[in-house]
Amino acid sequence: MHRPRLEFPEVLVMEILSKLPVRSLTRFNCVCKYWCSSFQTPHFISKHHHNNLKNNNLNLLLIRCDGNNFQPYFSHLSNQKDKQYIVKQKIHLPFFKSATPSVHGACDGLLCLQESSTDKAAIWNPSTREFRILPPSSIQCPPYFSSIQEGRWNLVEVSFRHAAFGFDSKTDDYKVIRFVALTFINSEDEHHFESQVELYSFRSDSWKEIPSPGYTLTHIFLGNNCVDGICYWITECPVFHDFVGPILSFDMANEKFSILSIPEFIGPFSECCFNLLAFNGSLGVITYGSKGIDLWITSEGIWTKQYRIESISGALWPLGFGKNDELFLRNIGTGEVLQFHPSTQELKKLEINTYLDNFQYDTPLLHVYVESLVRITGIQEPKEHIIRQPIRDVSNKSKCEERSA
């Protein structure tokens, strides 16, 4: 006697599937054509992303550079049952083999990668392992400059820095903004600097030049500097270089720059270090030094201290925030990664060491993203770039093999 086949309504099936990780949904693409096509609809993609946000399903990526071969890679951190973070897998970054790229985002589960020494940039979905390589820069040498100087100046360096990645809800478009610095030199070894700005549109897959705001930016932001489609940078004071200038903002929707007053609690560079960051959907500033660590967030222009961490022994550098507002730090002296819980004031050492990444100008950073099915119609990352076996398990396996031998 055959049991009757139990069938669930398709609406309920899609609701259940929208709560699964991307890796499972990728495997289920081959179940039937209806599932495959449903996973690519805007409604399902939005539903899946909303569920991940609601359940706080955050993923932690520590971008690093191997000190042995200088190859950039991501360490995917996994939270074990004992709440101890370890390196779950190691992901090498294709297309960025000669330098460690700057990482911007995450926006709807997407990250933007930018190599500062060249115009090489890409948008990456770490959940689907899909890349979109951005087109070459559209920046041209300023015509007014070359004509005024009558050809006495030579362009010797072009760098691409201070990028930001965000979403324009007005046009339903992802955009990348970056500042291009041009360095000229003449026969008398005199230098002249020009700054230009270009904006990338995901929809048109092209760059366009926009007017430069005329401010000197500092590269001090932690993980992500874009909140609700508005990007932020800290500038240098044009008169006193030891002091901080105003906060520069750029609205992705109207494509206009604006200026915000610098918070009163930020003093000179010599007194403390600080970073801009996106924290729980708000613009934040984290200050740190010998006196401790403070986190401030702003709402409608009013800055409020979120919490304070009293002075911690050792020189610690903030890496970023995790799932439950825990702060990840790096011991500069030993290279160890530590985890600080604001609620318990507990500081825990993790089984992660960044000693090989201990370069003066290359500090690891932590990036947090939510899994997403957003399609970027790019190319698939080669599987050989992903080492999925946990590093700790590999070492344990080797020890077991040695004992059995």
TrEMBL record:
Cite the F-box associated beta-propeller type domain residue spans from the record. Answer: 98-376
User: Which superkingdom, per the lineage?
Assistant: Eukaryota
InterPro entries found in the cross-reference section:
F-box-assoc_dom_typ1, F-box-assoc_interact_dom, F-box-like_dom_sf, F-box_dom, SCF_F-box_component
Identify the Gene3D superfamilies for this entry: 1.20.1280.50
- Pfam families in the cross-refs: F-box (PF00646), FBA_1 (PF07734)
> Locate the F-box domain: which residues?
7-45
- Supply the NCBIfam families for this chain: F_box_assoc_1
Cross-referenced PANTHER family: BNACNNG10540D PROTEIN, F-BOX PROTEIN CPR30-LIKE
Entry protein name: F-box domain-containing protein
Organismal lineage: Eukaryota, Viridiplantae, Streptophyta, Embryophyta, Tracheophyta
